[in-house]
User: Fold these one by one.
Assistant:
Number 1:
Amino acid sequence: MLSRLRNRVAARHLLWKSRRAYVVETRTGPLLVLPGVLDPVATKVGAWLGETMRGVVKPGEHWLDMGCGTGVVGLAMAGAGARVTCADIDPNCVANARANAALRRVDLDARLSDLFGAVGPAHGVVYNAPFWPGEGAGEPFGRAMYAGKAFEAIRRYREEAAAAGVGRVLLALSEAGRDHAGARAAFGASRLTHRERVGGEWLVILEAE
């Protein structure tokens, strides 16, 4: 009961903050959060994933930041020397990633794309995926948080990554999701590459096998 109450209070605070632009600090630098875009520090996964991916990518590799949001993950990978393409279905997120690239003077390509619709092959791709089961229709941040009744967003991601010829396919999840086992099963055969407790949640990165 207490955990649900904390989550509700946190969600209301996040919605209040999302009505205006503001800057948050991350370990990889300051980050602008535009109205209507998820805060990767408040929601934990994005900021953690960016820090972690700095140790995964290698200079000169081409990586895709799928569902880029503010661009926090793509910016971190670019800072580690990778060539980065950010992709998101929400034009506000694409604009936010571009704004943060300009703010930090980082060279990256941000594109409007429904998963792999406007991006091609790469050395690797990482997706800070929606991991709540259900549609989330009409809810603020619904598309960013809800993956469909059978986690269709995650299933499509795995299928399209294979079709696009991407070498390494990574998925980030929080074990605090309502059905973590279901989200992981939707991704298919995979291995756990990272697991860390952040702010009371276990966050993980899976790599497709």
Number 2:
Amino acid sequence: MSQYAMVIDLHRCVGCHACALACRAEWNVPVPYHRSWVEDLGPEETSEGLSYTFFPAMCNHCDHPVCVEVCPAEPIEKEFRDPKTGKTIKMAAKATYKNPINGLVLIDKDRCLGCGACVDACPYGARYLDDTLDKPKADKCTFCVERLEHGEVPACVKTCPVDARIFGDITDKDSEVYRLVHKEGAKSLTSKEVNIGPNVYYLGKKKDIELLFKKCAPHKRTWENVKAPSRRDVLVAAIKKIRDKV
């Protein structure tokens, strides 16, 4: 089966945030949440010299996603169809699941319980619980699956003014993403602690890749490093519950 993947070329990225803004506009992502974001890294000394670069981030659509493991929703049988061959695959899927046809990690919003377990578990901090809805639901980057179904590329890829984002099927040996990963050495962001097969890759100078791994390599999520809600968030949630009961 296929596996959609993205390569981000740090040689080209200028940190303009056009990708993040396009994502927010495309999917009406509420502030302060994000599906896609960009962080500044450095300037900082590395073994290869002084580095200043950017960290464009999103869901990695991992081969072995921990968000799927922790989802408490009862699995149901779901059928997936390959649009190219017409072949179908049936499997038990939770509210968060990995599509066996294209490798995308997706959320069935109708079945999401809004418990936030997947949000807390993601070692990349790539999910959020949208509490602006009447019933909170988990959300994240989907590689713009709806656009893909119409033969278009993700909004962030289309919007990037310097073509720093390359998207495609990494199982296709003729694809650009395959070439950049297997021949140009683009690297996915892993660590000794967490290596769950992320499908977002980074290409750049040695010093920039070193800084990227130093600052942004994933770690197992614990209660200590899961961001706690602010006092304001707690108060707002409590007021909302009271209003809902009135």
Number 3:
Amino acid sequence: MSETTQTPPAGEAAPVPPLVVNIQYVKDLSFEVPGAPAIFTQLRAQPQVAINLDVQARRIQDGQPVFEVSLVIRAEAHDPSPQTNGQTAPAVPPTVFVAELTYAGVFTLNGLPDNAVEPVLLVECPRILFPFARNILSDVTRDGGFPPVLLQPIDFVALWQSRRAGAGAAQPAVVA
């Protein structure tokens, strides 16, 4: 099939999309294995991974509809069955690895009503970024010598709604 691009008639501007992805990038990435190399011989079961995810958005320049949206993900894995040598198990299982990723994008919003800006920045933009961040986290943990961490799909609408309910009017979700 061929694609046809229609040019607008003379004097008319091309329609501007309401959401433009300018760039996506890894803003920060850290992977630590505090017990290496011993942890690789001591680990008897797949580590238990706790995931913490946050979405942050900020306006890049005052008066401009250009925003940076960041997915901040922290995956911390613990050994579910540490060797105790007959002693009581420690209260906090040993840390196997810690992966921290901030994956960001710069987005331009065109012609959106004021009440639509926050949901677009905290729901739609993270939906665009998430598959890429998920892949990076999976690759990093696999390349670190562990089973890949595969994030399950995130309901960004529910995350945004719970953030609004928890924060109330105390703090804005989008930094202007």
Number 4:
Amino acid sequence: MHPDLPSSPPPATGANRPSNLRDGRWFLFFSLGYGLYVALPFLAPVLMHWGLEGPARALYAFYGFFCHQMAQRSFFLFGPRLMYNLADIQAFWQPTTDPLLLRQFVGGPDIGWKVAWSDRMVWMYTSVLLFAWVWWPLRRRVRPLPGWGLALLFLPLALDGFSHLISDITGGIGAGFRYHNAWLAALTGGRLPASFYVGDAVGSFNFWMRLISGLAFGLGVVWWAFPRLIEEAE
């Protein structure tokens, strides 16, 4: 090679090839793609409010593959309240406890329009995105969560979800031990308002348990999985 000519750069190898995981492009794509996935359930009630029922129904149908969508455990937009108990839904619509019918109810102009995910799904999957945004600027200082830590953070969701399932199967929708929570009222001496023990609306025990267990799920997913994605790329 002539000494005056610049040398060609070395070919890219595994050690010096740019990594999408290391340079942050993957996180941008994740934020955009996953962010769209968790935002679209909130678009369904917006479309209903605008009178665009066809696209809204398509979103309800798509997210119905991933969620029970029962009205008494879902958020409502453009109405007087964010959530309604089963008795409210029955008074507004029809006196049913059939979960297949309750998932079909999407609301109305007077009550608002249902988000295409239940509140549990909102907390679970939206919290993954929120905790990912918190983790990203701190990623070099946060050690990966061990497996036992992930199990502990998943435990509240497992207990809450499984107990709701047993309650709905054995007692029925609106009548099981996780609807009235008489066991909790006895445990606390009934010191809290009746609205805290009964039903699923905002402020109830069931609402707080779904919120807390959903946030714990999102934290566990990000804290355990995302650092390992970076480690695999380095």
